[in-house]
Write a structure and sequence with these properties.
Layout lengths: L20 E8 L2 E2 L2 H14 L8 H15 L4 E9 L5 E9 L5 H6 L1 E9 L16 H12 L4 E5 L6 E4 L3 E6 L2 E4 L10 H12 L4 E3 L4 H5 L3 E6 L3 E8 L2 E2 L7 H18 L4
Parallel strand pairs: 5-6, 5-12, 9-10
Antiparallel strand pairs: 1-2, 1-3, 3-4, 6-7, 8-9, 8-11, 11-12, 12-13
Helix pairs in contact: 5-7
Length: 272
């Protein structure tokens, strides 16, 4: 007997559809930035989730570029989701849409964030280096932050109470002229933009250190910022009601953002 669906096009989520992976990529001047790195992370996620990928990374990259070309968008976001069937074979679902970045006001004033009760999964349960499609924890965290009057949420790790990342961004801070960031072994995703930011810091001769950070550390930081594909580098000027530094985007945050943009321009125009 056939099943009855209301509405007719809707289907129940299954174990398979809840266990896929995805990537979000930024397009500048009609080119996908760091496509190779994004594909590498996507296929690493698929391996972790035991997905069988019929397309090679090269073939998927060609398909992404073809869809982008058909869109005719120069400044865009490309999202690819790999949703497996019952045999764990994952075919790509691709969406290209105009980019939607934080407002100019957010870059001028910074954003307010809140450390929320929702925790990331312990790394022994689900390794967050796999960018898996189940995002309920992130949705809940954003709601909790907004109820506190904040723009975005920060997670604590599953066990030790260290701050790890935002719902879709990596976290960094400046203290006494040093760029500090939580290490991935705490249980966080190594962002593509984050990797570019480390390159920018080296170019600026800005000392860097990966170290577990507590809320106390962040409250007393000179500068705090988030990085992601869509945010690039966005200053955090208030955490849990505490004003960070001067309460305005700091000089090192701005230097890093300019250096990030310079790296993007060089790669777009073939000067690596």
């Amino acid at each position: 007997m056939p099943s009855l669906r209301e509405p007719s096009h809707w289907s129940m989520p299954t174990l398979e559809t809840a266990s896929g992976c995805f990537e979000t990529m930024r397009v500048y001047e009609g080119q996908i930035f760091r496509l190779h790195a994004h594909l590498g992370r996507l296929y690493a996620s698929a391996t972790y989730l035991n997905l069988h990928m019929p397309l090679t990374p090269r073939q998927l990259g060609q398909r992404l570029n073809a869809v982008l070309a058909r869109s005719a968008l120069q400044e865009a976001v490309v999202r690819v989701a790999m949703i497996p069937n019952a045999q764990r074979i994952a075919h790509p679902s691709i969406v290209v849409q105009p980019v939607s970045m934080p407002t100019a006001q957010m870059y001028r004033r910074g954003i307010h964030v809140s450390v929320v009760p929702t925790r990331r999964f312990p790394i022994g349960q689900i390794d967050p280096q796999a960018k898996f499609s189940a995002r309920l924890g992130s949705v809940q965290a954003v709601m909790e932050a907004q109820l506190r009057g904040a723009d975005e949420a920060l997670f604590l790790d599953g066990l030790g109470g260290y701050v790890t990342e935002s719902t879709a961004s990596n976290l960094g801070m400046i203290k006494d002229g040093v760029f500090l960031a939580p290490p991935c072994w705490l249980g966080l995703l190594a962002g593509i933009t984050w990797q570019v930011l480390w390159e920018a810091a080296r170019q600026l001769r800005l000392p860097t250190q990966e170290v577990p950070l507590t809320r106390h550390d962040l409250y007393n930081g000179d500068e705090v910022f988030l990085t992601s594909t869509l945010k690039e580098i966005l200053a955090v000027t208030q955490i849990d009601g505490r004003v960070i530094g001067t309460g305005k985007p700091g000089p090192q945050t701005q230097r890093l953002h300019r250096a990030f943009r310079a790296i993007v321009r060089r790669e777009l125009h073939g000067h690596h």
